[in-house]
TrEMBL record:
Alphabetical UniProt keywords: DNA-binding, Transcription, Transcription regulation
Database matches in Gene3D superfamilies: 3.40.190.290, Winged helix-like DNA-binding domain superfamily/Winged helix DNA-binding domain (1.10.10.10)
Lipid metabolism in keyword set: no
Protein family: Belongs to the LysR transcriptional regulatory family.
CDD domains: PBP2_CrgA_like (cd08422)
Protein name: LysR family transcriptional regulator
Domain HTH lysR-type: 25-82
Entry keyword DNA-binding: yes
One matching Pfam family: HTH_1
Sections of the chain in a coiled coil: none
């Protein structure tokens, strides 16, 4: 027979705990599970968390037992989420863990401002060394409690595996799970060395590019370029004996006189001003190169949000100014380029 008596003080406390309060270890295990699932590796997760692999594996096993579901498939070579429950559970738990971390960071930021170790990946391009470095310097001066570390790495970057807070990218990542924020655009043009232009002549129209050696900065012997002048658009197939997967290397080939190449006008600004390269068809532009900030989540710690908010405004302004200066410099063809055009 059911009792109408209200539980004693002790039993009321136990009832509230069991009915409404999650066990503290459950929340910690959720965070451990998210770390392992995102990295797809017990060893990498353990290293990032600063705990033994055996302890981490045991906690995940106990966590699976507590929820009554198998969330991870483990083999000697591979760790993967189970398709039945693991993937769906990760999506739900990730939001909880990220929100909890953000709440903690926000409280710390209120107390003493954004702080911590901010790890950024960026491409090893000239504009990064010249312009992004200045933005980071300004940010660092304003946030003494944030230590900023920058790795220059070509794409693609493993944000989770290498423990980056964010990446600066000039190509939109293929992984649909990543969060991409477009920051700015940089104009592209076509450039060649004076020695090459003296030998082959400067193109006067987009169609002239068909008879030129073009260094293609992608894998393959040819590429299709879309050139724009006002409302006029011309698609042209270009190619040559050299190709590579690096814009920086393509620029070096061009400086060596191996052909024409497309380039970010900021990246070759110094080459143009010193006469190592000259812009051809300056009235025509190629599709602009977008600059992105890439993160693994929309819920970011205060240190990352502070940098993105600051850098988005400053970098857009800096790159727009630099592009304008480079455009004006590149629009003045060198005398050698003019003579090369007239001789052909």
């Amino acid at each position: 027979m059911a009792s109408d008596r209200w539980p004693s003080a002790r039993s009321r406390h136990d009832w509230v705990d069991s009915a409404t309060m999650p066990h503290p270890q459950l929340l910690r295990d959720m965070a451990l599970f998210v770390e392992v699932a995102r990295r797809k590796s017990f060893s990498q997760a353990a290293a990032a968390l600063g705990m033994p692999i055996s302890s981490l594996s045991r906690r995940i096993t106990m966590f699976e037992a507590s929820v009554g579901l198998r969330l991870l498939d483990r083999t000697t070579r591979k760790l993967a989420l189970t398709s039945s429950y693991g993937e769906a559970y990760l999506a739900q738990v990730s939001r909880l863990v990220d929100e909890a971390q953000r709440t903690f960071d926000d409280m710390m930021a209120v107390a003493k401002g954004p702080s911590g170790f901010l790890k950024i990946a960026a491409p090893p391009d000239f504009w990064v060394l010249r312009h992004l470095s200045g933005v980071i310097t300004e940010f660092s001066a304003l946030h003494e409690h944030i230590h900023v570390h920058v790795d220059l790495k070509p794409a693609p970057v493993d944000l989770v595996g290498d423990n980056y807070d964010l990446a600066v990218a000039i190509e939109e990542p293929r992984e649909t799970s990543l969060i991409v924020r477009k920051v700015a655009e940089v104009e592209n043009g076509i450039f060649g060395a004076p020695s090459y232009l003296a030998e082959r002549g400067a193109p006067m129209t987009p169609l002239d590019l068909e008879r030129h050696q073009v260094i293609v900065p992608t894998q393959g012997t040819s590429a299709t370029w879309s050139l724009v002048r006002g409302e006029e658009t011309v698609a042209i197939t270009v190619g040559g004996p050299l190709s590579c997967n690096s814009l920086s290397l393509a620029r070096r080939f061009a400086v060596a006189g191996q052909g024409l190449t497309r380039a970010n006008i900021i990246n070759v600004d110094n080459d143009v001003s010193t006469g190592r390269l000259a812009r051809v068809l300056p009235d025509w532009t190629l599709p602009a190169t977008p600059v992105y900030f890439v993160t693994t989540s929309r819920l970011l710690p205060a240190k990352a949000r502070s940098f993105i908010d600051f850098a988005t405004k400053r970098l857009a302004t800096v790159l727009a100014t630099a592009s304008g200066e480079s455009r004006r410099a590149g629009a003045r063809p060198s005398r050698l380029a003019e003579r090369a055009a007239l001789s052909f």
